[in-house]
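Before the break, one more example. Copy the sequence into your notebook; we will annotate it together after we see the structure.
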Amino acid sequence: MRSTLHRRLLMPIAAAGVIGLTLAGCTGDQAAGPGDADCSDYEVYGTFEGEEVSLLGTPVDVEGERLQTSLDDFSACTGIEVTYQGTQEFEAQMRVLVDGDNAPDLAMFPQPGLFASFAKDFIAPPAEVEANVDEFWSEDWKAYGTVDGTFLGAPLMASIKGLIWYSPSTWEENGWEVPETLDDLMALTEDVAADGTMKPWCAGFTSGEATGWPGTDWIEDMVLRLDGPEVYDQWVSHEIPFNDPQIEQAFDAVGDYLKNPDFVNGGYGDVRSILDITFNEGGWPILDGECAMHHQASFYEGLWPEGTTIAEDGDIWAFVMPGTEADAAAVTGGGEIVGAFTDSDAVKATQTFLSSDTWANLRVELGGTVSANNGVNPDNASSPLLAEVIRTLQDPNTTFRFDASDLMPGAVGSDSFWKGIVAWIGGQDTKTTVDTIEASWPAPTS
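Here is what the structure looks like once it is written out:
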């Protein structure tokens, strides 16, 4: 998955009209003044007068407004007017802005690979930022903001992939239990299919130019679970080729579910209908009793039809895709890394605030997102499911790996991998698919 959830939830808009290459304007209203906020938590950042800091990222609309709101008290108490701007064309716009000497003061990068490509342009963060990351984040997360051994940026928000969504009442009626291993998951799939009342799985892979990414999430989850984090890392870094037998095995394991007409595509049609259904509607047939399970990330909580209750005893709930052994805590996911392009005390103060547990708790309380910051209180989450996601991210026994396609070169992660999934679901065999993707991997530069 190369795009972040914010870009996937909304239809594309004209980026030039959004930011106009000037970063003018902001999302949401600034707080009226220090009198409206408890400034005790902000004294450590100092006070400024008339300073402005621009922040560019991918969240837009409601998510963008929440992000701006999370900064308002900081602005009111420090005197730094932080203006957030969201765009769905972040990758293209960042290069234009930087090359045109018009970069934002701070930017939230949705992919570590993209972040690394701007390494030479960043202003090194202050020591306080790295101290916050060392205190509140795991070494894996810190590594995503580190390029060639140099720490350049702190993580921000997060999501996890590999959740399997289901209807608690339907499962209770049929006596189905949450599987503890991948073998249990396949056995459950076979039982649902044999029962004949519904298909085990429903899926939708359509997402405009990004069609196919939900399938890459499936593959990434399976590589991590079948072969472990070492092979996953080797795959991402191309230490093993994309057509390595272990990766081919993961494709086939996913194909056992997605390419079996007895198992998919409940409520929609045959296997190929997966490519006709938008990702946001992919799991909806669960509500009508037409399929039992849907594989999608934690942000999918916000894509169920209005009025859907997300709870253990509600309309919909979810569990993490199991591993080869019970209690195997391994998840893939995504998030943002914050980089600075301006060297000023106001920017450093803002960057430090964004790396803190104070900001993370504020943003989580506003709803719709989670953070892997260990200083976040899961009870601050806007739903029981997101609270569970935070606990999973904070659990020291959890093996977390960033979405592989976000880490791979763009020619693979957001191109041949997506296209390969489309061809594969359309009937292309696994070997041809992985060989074609491997052939697209850019040659190393001298």
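Residues 213-237 form the longest helix (25 residues). Confidence is low (pLDDT under 50) at residues 1-34. Try to locate both features in your own notes.
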